[in-house]
Amino acid sequence: MARTARRPAPRNGRRTDYRVTFVVLCAGVSSFSLLQSMVTPVLPTIEAALDTDQATVTWVLTAYLLSASVFTPIIGRVGDKVGKERMLVVALLALAVGSLLAAVAPSVGVLIAARAIQGVGGGVLPLTFGIIRDEFPRDKVAGAVGTSAALLAVGGGFGLVLAGPIVEALSYHWLFWLPMIMTLLAAAAAHLFVPESPERQPGRINVTSALLMSTWLVTLLLAVSQGSSWGWGSPITVGLFVATVVVLPTWVYAEAHSDSPLVDMTMMRIPTVWTVNLVALLFGMGMYSMFAFVPQFLQTPGELTGYGFGASVTQSGLMLLPQTMATFLVGLWSGRLAARFGSKAVLVAGATLTSMGMLGIVLFHDHVWQLVAESTVLGLGFGLAFAALSNLIVDAVPQSQTGVASGMNANIRTVGGALGSAVLASVVTAGARPDGLPVEAGYAHGFSVLVVTSALAALVAVFVPVVRVATRSTADADLDEAVPAADPVPVAAR
Question: Can you tell me where the transmembrane regions are (predicted)?
């Protein structure tokens, strides 16, 4: 295993207090997570404002999904090699530039390009985990990783809550102006206060591997996200799936035989890593699909369909506010829970609660209070699982690979979300009414699929082996005269 590069000297002879660093990191994660979800509820508004059609406006979401899936692990890996602090600034500036371009976009084409630029900001999450592991005292790492990971789900929930009021009070342009301001402030604070990375992995960036990985991710996610509109049996959809089947194993082979892999296949085969990634895939199917379809269910006019509550975008967001708060509060407590019960137990509990919440929605959805209670249970599950997934990955890999390992885990969760949304869309819309609205049974069947995926996630989580990689905490180290760090050494499983 490669030894880490020489530690750079801290700015001004001293390192920033880790609590200041944590505030800056949370601001960056919050900005990215808000942009993930705020646009979804107002796509019809954007469609009308930019004089486009539904098929085209969906690319506002698809471009962001594709770009984030490609850049999340790449930016994380580059951060492992050249420095996490500088790549964090790059990722935040990309978010800001994309937000500025989106706010002033005169056409849907420009908006789609802006969303693709914003996707570069996906690297914020793995960089955040890497910086926490580098800078925080060992006993603070689990809580900080858990809270920052939960912020991704919290931001997604708040995005649904805030989208309606922002559009009604201002305009949809402010869905981009506000995150741009937040992101610029976070980028400036990151440059000023986040210490330079003390852990580096030497070697070149493998461009061929990056291109191969980008190709299979784009072909897979494009086929999955657009298959329902293009037709699952259409030549372009089938062709994309065939390309994925060809390029994915080619990428794995190239990485396994590279002297400077982008993603170390030996690391990906660590039992803890691949089982946690499988849980992330299954869990992502449920969480991201819930974000998309529960608001849609709440907004369905009950007087026409016999179900739903005819809620506005703002009202449906407020109905889901307890879920967001539950995720946030659990995220704050995740470190203590992991310290007492272990991250594996927390993950099992989170996936189980998610399955229970989904089952509740399938069985009881006739009253608003039922949906609020069930979505709150989901929020608890999301907060627990997000925190545990991230902590298990961070603990299982060498410090020099934290960024790329966390990036791949986040990416696999995103792939799961795309797969889940595609499956749910097909199930929910099967046998739709003449006016295009789904029948109630469509939602029940769709949410039943998510019950199964969440239960499978809980089952796989039971078999996750927990191995912690011992690392030297830079918060306790003398960094004035740095020396190369020794290779991390695995310690016994808990």
Answer: 20-39, 59-76, 88-106, 112-132, 144-166, 172-193, 205-224, 230-253, 274-293, 313-333, 345-365, 377-398, 410-431, 443-464
